[in-house]
Design goal:
By secondary structure, the protein is of the alpha/beta class. It has a seven-stranded mixed sheet. The chain has a five-stranded parallel sheet with strand order 13-14-15-16-17. Strands 10-12-11 form a three-stranded antiparallel sheet. The protein starts with a helix and ends with a strand. Helix 19 packs antiparallel against helix 20, helix 32 packs across helix 33 and helix 35 runs parallel beside helix 37. Strand 7, helix 18 and strand 8 form a beta-alpha-beta unit.
Length: 879
């Protein structure tokens, strides 16, 4: 059947009133306490949920039939299509969206989300039946979204353009004559335009190429005997987790709260991203930001998305845009320049205006990687461009990444972006990474195959019991480096960060070719130290020029200037020969696109730049830029590399007034000095005392954001925090935030001073931090002392579950990890449990909860599917 004809029969006067009956009236909303001054979950608005619903299942079926019948050209199609539509309506009661998020979607995307909520809804329908079903649902989606704008003053006020456009669509206007196309919205009942056959053919080829281009994961040193150190993403990807604010159980509206309270446990990245169309993901160096975007691009291109994203990303066109390349492509690119900025070899083959049409149709997945790699002065221009893009091209999905301190908190919040943070790897994640790394190494049938099992076991034990190693193993980059060095050195590992980087450079620069029994292939055979000196020159140029990559010609010119001073290299070839040798034989450089080169990871670039700066005694350069976030790691590494007198010069310079530095930047410089203390191997005690004296007053946080930011300094901050015994409850909560932001077991000693507090926020913060520390010690010294009144104790792994059982169990538990029902039945003290909070989908019916005789309440995360099989006596609360 013709969808356009079916849609034409669904007049606004027919569809609008019927759609309104799906939702509570104003009087019912008021009686249910539904607000109109902030976003409201769609599931709370429908009229067919709760103990006494206004609409029954039969009512939904009759309503669906009244919508389908006028559009159908064949009466035989009405019953099956009406049944499918009624089931789709019913799924609104379990929707994860709120009304504000829904209105920000294009109607076609909202209709797609509704269909995806009932995966088999079209099963059994004929081809004409599916076309009829989709035509009716598309028309209904317009009127549902229009209803949300009329119901909520908040939605109408904050989404003015969407409200205007939906009013036009609901009135039957298709936007003809709007000049710019009113954001390109198609007429009611039609699918988004996909362009010409040439567009479709190119898209098909592009999807295949994207899956190949990004389907790799670099694991440093995975196998010195079998280069390259890259593995298929779908085989090696370790699911990353994100942190976001905790749902509110009660209390004032979000706008009136000072802080969202203790953080909810991390959830899988796909679950955190579900339902969001604009996201800023923060993560430290090596935490997997780029890997996450690669995985999203590949999964979307292949249409192999996890269930959480299956209703949001199918059919979208991924563009993975590395910010570091913008400068070499005449600044922030326009859509037609996206493919060139990506380094896509087929960029010239794209049909004219193709990318623009994709964005106009709202079918793009924009993955903007590494805001921190743009020069600081350019980041505001990037934000303005993002604001223009999202306003001009609604309906697309945007995921932007950055290091945490590169942009201010809520940098994109006013443009509708939600902020997520990549969580540090948990103990289970670290163990899983180490096991997977060694399995991948074994697949290469190496000469040391018989020893890999021993290496795996000893490394797993080392990161668990050795404090310094545990502090380093917090992200995929560092875990991969630890695995490689542990194997390369046959079980020996350096203990500090500086020693780890030095050993890593030695492995990659000196031992790599030797282990592979290779002879020089380019007539150049450089020792380790000249290689480091030359690489430092390239890293130093990038640092001074605020770049994360450089042109190939610039790299060769830079080497040419410095070769005369390095005779071991100069006598073996010219700058071009040496450049090719460094690129092909060190494992640290790569040509990302023809004509550009960068380091395989920013961490190595920063470390080599710090070495160069210290060797040149250019501490003035470091002090001139110390208030710039991209220089933080360089300065901390420089302190680790410098001699005692140089450390003192650097730290005193950070404390001293500096021309052109604002007050907030001066405060940041002093905090950076405090953060550098733990890296100084030898330092005049008077300088150390001076740093502590200058920063002690800053160790009294006044806001939650400030409290968490202090954790960036590291364990040294614990020596400067005030005695918690003298703090008020409000002050104690902020101190708890700071101390629990430090992922080091040294924090446990400080937290013991807070464990007897009765204030719920303090107790909840202490409980939520358990996963960061040694399980047994934290259970013994913190968890065992917390008053359990109204407190949910999180358990993220079997160790915590068993530790809590040994403590006699607790009445309220938060399941924050992956467990089977049998594990929970065995690990929970059944007689004590009264409330259970699920933060992730266990994937099975919950009828087994009958084994807990006192359990009366089940809390379910807002982004989870509605649980099935819950015993009748247990109340389900959707957060």
């Amino acid at each position: 059947m013709d969808p356009t004809t079916a849609a034409a029969r669904l007049t606004p006067g027919l569809v609008g009133p019927l759609v309104r009956t799906l939702f509570m009236s104003e009087e019912e909303s008021a009686a249910a306490g539904v607000a109109d001054d902030r976003p409201v979950p769609v599931a709370r608005l429908v009229a067919f949920r709760g103990e006494k619903p206004a609409l029954t299942e039969e009512d939904l079926e009759r309503l669906a039939e009244r919508l389908v019948a006028p559009a159908a050209s064949d009466e035989a199609a009405i019953p099956p299509v009406s049944g499918a539509l009624a089931r789709t309506f019913g799924a609104l009661a379990t929707s994860e969206l709120d009304d504000w998020q829904a209105v920000r979607l294009r109607p076609a995307d909202f209709a797609q989300r509704m269909r995806a909520a009932v995966p088999d809804v079209e099963r059994g329908l004929t081809a004409d039946g599916r076309a009829l079903f989709r035509a009716v649902l598309d028309a209904v989606a317009v009127h549902i979204l229009h209803f949300f704008t009329r119901r909520s003053e908040f939605v109408a006020r904050t989404l003015v353009e969407q409200t205007r456009r939906l009013a036009e669509l609901a009135a039957g206007k298709d936007g003809a004559g709007d000049g710019d196309g009113a954001a390109g919205e198609p007429a009611v009942g039609t699918a988004p335009p996909r362009g010409s056959s040439a567009d479709a053919a190119f898209e098909e080829r592009y999807a295949r190429d994207v899956a190949v281009l990004h389907n790799h994961l670099t694991i440093f040193g995975i196998d010195l005997a079998h280069s390259p150190d890259s593995w298929p993403l779908d085989a090696a990807y370790l699911g990353l987790q994100c942190e976001r604010g905790q749902p509110e159980l009660s209390g004032p509206p979000a706008g009136e709260r000072q802080d969202p309270g203790p953080q909810a446990p991390p959830v899988p990245a796909e679950q955190a991203l579900a339902g969001l169309d604009k996201v800023l993901v923060r993560g430290v160096a090596g935490s997997g930001k780029t890997t996450l975007l690669q995985w999203l691009a590949v999964a979307t291109a292949r249409d192999e998305l996890p269930p959480a994203l299956a209703g949001q990303l199918p059919g979208r066109v991924p563009f993975l845009l590395p910010v570091r390349r913008f400068a070499s492509h005449s600044g922030i690119p326009s859509p037609d320049g996206f493919l060139a900025a990506m380094g896509y070899a087929g960029a010239d083959a794209q049909p004219a205006g193709w990318a623009e049409r994709v964005l106009r149709a709202g079918r793009g997945l924009l993955l903007v990687d590494g805001v921190d790699e743009a020069p600081e002065d350019d980041r505001e221009r990037l934000r303005v461009r993002l604001r223009e893009w999202t306003a001009r091209y609604p309906g697309n999905v945007w995921v932007v990444t950055s290091r945490p301190s590169a942009v201010p908190e809520d940098w994109l919040a006013s443009d509708g972006f939600t902020e997520l943070r990549l969580a540090p790897m948990s103990r289970e994640d670290v163990a899983a990474f180490i096991q997977r790394w060694h399995r991948a190494a074994a697949q290469q049938s190496p000469a040391d195959l018989d020893r890999l099992g021993h290496y795996e076991r000893t490394l797993l034990n080392a990161v668990r019991i050795t404090r310094d190693l545990g502090r380093l193993a917090t992200n995929p980059l560092m875990c991969g480096l630890l695995c490689a060095l542990h194997r390369d050195r046959r079980g020996y590992l350096p203990s500090g960060r500086k020693e780890l980087y030095d050993a890593g450079l030695s492995m990659l620069l000196e031992r790599r070719d030797r282990e592979r029994a290779m002879v020089p292939t380019d007539a150049i055979d450089l020792p380790r130290q000249p290689k480091i000196q030359l690489l430092q020159k390239l890293a130093h140029w990038m640092l001074v020029n605020g770049r994360s990559e450089m042109g190939r010609d610039v790299a060769v010119d830079t080497l040419a200037r410095h070769l005369p001073a390095i005779p071991d290299a100069a006598r073996q070839g010219d700058a071009e020969d040496v450049y090719r040798h460094l690129l092909n034989r060190t494992g640290l450089l790569r040509e990302t696109t023809p004509g550009t080169v960068d380091f395989v990871h920013r961490t190595f670039q920063d470390y080599l730049a710090a070495r160069a700066t210290v060797q040149q005694h250019d501490f003035g350069l470091l002090l001139d830029h110390a208030h710039h976030t991209e220089w933080e790691d360089v300065i901390r590494m420089a302190v680790a590399l410098a001699r005692p007198d140089e450390c003192a010069q650097l730290l005193n310079g950070l404390l001293a007034p500096h021309a052109g530095v604002r007050a907030a930047e001066a405060r940041h410089r002093k905090l950076l000095a405090a953060a550098c203390l733990e890296h100084a191997t030898e330092l005049d005690p008077e300088v150390r005392r001076r740093v502590q004296r200058f920063t002690r007053d800053m160790m009294r946080p006044t806001t939650p954001a400030g409290a968490r930011a202090l954790g960036w300094i590291g364990p040294i901050v614990l020596e400067m925090l005030p005695d918690p015994a003298t703090a008020t409850n409000a002050e104690a909560y902020l101190l708890a935030l700071t101390a629990t932001s430090i992922g080091d077991d040294m924090a446990i000693d400080y937290l013991t001073g807070l464990r007897e507090r009765s204030h719920l926020d303090i107790r909840a913060q202490l409980a939520s931090a358990w996963r960061k520390y040694d399980t047994e010690r934290y259970a013994r010294e913190i968890i065992a002392h917390l008053d359990d009144a109204e407190l949910y104790f999180p358990v993220s792994d079997l160790e915590e579950l068993h530790a809590l059982r040994r403590l006699g169990g607790r009445p309220h538990l938060q399941i924050a990890g992956r467990f089977t029902p049998d594990q929970l039945i065995e690990g929970i003290v059944a007689e004590r449990l009264t409330r259970l909070w699920l933060t992730s989908d266990l994937g099975v019916p919950l009828d087994w909860l009958t084994v807990f005789p006192r359990l009366d309440t089940l809390l379910v995360g807002s982004r989870l599917p509605r649980p099935a099989g819950v015993p009748e006596h247990i109340e389900v609360v959707e957060l």
